[in-house]
Specification:
- The protein is of the alpha/beta class.
- 50% of the residues lie in helices and 11% in strands.
- It has 3 domains: 33 residues; 90 residues, no CATH class; 168 residues, 2-Layer Sandwich (Nucleotidyltransferase, domain 5).
- It is built from 15 helices and 6 strands.
- α8 packs parallel to α11.
- The termini are close together.
């Protein structure tokens, strides 16, 4: 078509008339007649080869081999070896055929009144009971006590056979020993409606300690206390949890070990900051530093992009004719 229009122009027909005959826009004809060199664009924020290699190196680190991708992201910021988001790490692993996936948890419905308390500046003391079986046949009950919104596991109490009001109040007393005073001033207990939780001795004891009545979730609605339910599930099915417990002492040893693991693991609800860092007030500084890390690495990648672009411009461009 371009050749036909050029021949028509050669015999004296104007370009506009020749294009009108074949129903072609003159501007498109000029673009087809004088094609520009076609260069494939590359993203300037693409991770650098050394960054990709550093990410892949963490996959074979013995200390990080069984950790989720969120831990690798935090490790990259902490060590300074690489700065990348969880999705970027996942793409690098997928391209290298490393069998790791990002597990996305669905958000469960939460009790509105409890969220209103948190929004108003209160802290919540959550507790519950969950049983652990042993090979010896003895049932051990775990009584974890969780502090919100920092998600700190203050204490893991225990009892044999069942959970009584005394067992629950003892666990709460132990948990409050390590709680800062500024949190105790605005601390409210929050639990489900179990028999030990609703016992008069429990309510009176906690009210005398905190100065506020106990806050309960709605009947038959475990989602109202979703935080402590999630904690109990993590305690039972954690990646480091033993497959079975031969004796009672093995269960107690796991309770003690789990508290340290849980409080030092990055949590998605805290933007992958550990509970102890959130409790100590380091959360804002850590998140600001990560944001600055992302900005710095973006500038580094942009500089690398411009350097490579200048090198390509020095080479002879390869002209690719677009088909008509």
């Amino acid at each position: 078509m371009v050749k036909a229009i050029e021949e028509a122009i050669g015999v004296g027909i104007s370009q506009a008339e020749a294009c009108k005959i074949v129903s072609l826009n003159p501007r498109k004809f000029r673009r087809w007649a004088n094609p520009k060199a076609h260069r494939q664009r590359t993203s300037w924020n693409k991770i650098l080869p050394q960054e990709r290699q550093a990410i892949l190196s963490t996959a074979y680190d013995e200390k990080l081999a069984d950790k989720p991708l969120s831990h690798l992201m935090v490790h990259g910021h902490t060590s300074g070896n690489f700065i990348a988001s969880i999705s970027t790490i996942s793409r690098v692993f997928k391209a290298a055929a490393i069998p790791r996936e990002v597990k996305v948890r669905r958000k469960s419905a939460s009790y509105v009144d409890a969220h209103d308390l948190l929004d108003a500046g209160f802290s919540l003391l959550c507790y519950d009971g969950s049983l652990f079986d042993t090979d010896s046949g003895v049932i051990v009950w775990a009584i974890p006590v969780l502090l919100l919104p920092q998600r700190v596991l203050l204490h893991v109490g225990h009892s044999l056979g069942g959970v009584s009001s005394r067992d629950l109040t003892n666990a709460v007393d132990e948990a409050l020993v390590s709680t800062p005073q500024y949190i105790l001033d605005l601390l409210i207990a929050h639990s489900d409606r179990g028999s030990a939780m609703k016992a008069n001795k429990t309510k009176e004891h906690i009210r005398s300690l905190l100065g506020f009545p106990v806050h309960y979730g709605r009947p038959n609605t475990p989602d109202d206390v979703g935080w402590i339910e999630a904690l109990v599930k993590t305690m039972k099915y954690h990646r480091d949890s033993p497959s079975h417990f031969p004796m009672v002492d093995d269960v107690l040893q796991w309770f003690k070990k789990f508290q340290d693991i849980y409080n030092n693991d990055p949590h998605s609800s805290l933007n992958y900051v550990t509970p102890l860092q959130a409790l100590s007030g380091e959360m804002e500084a850590i998140l600001c530093q990560r944001k600055q890390n992302y900005l710095d690495v973006r500038r580094k990648r942009l500089y690398n992009y411009h350097v490579n672009k200048q090198l390509l411009c020095k080479q002879e461009p390869e002209v690719v004719l677009l088909s008509t």
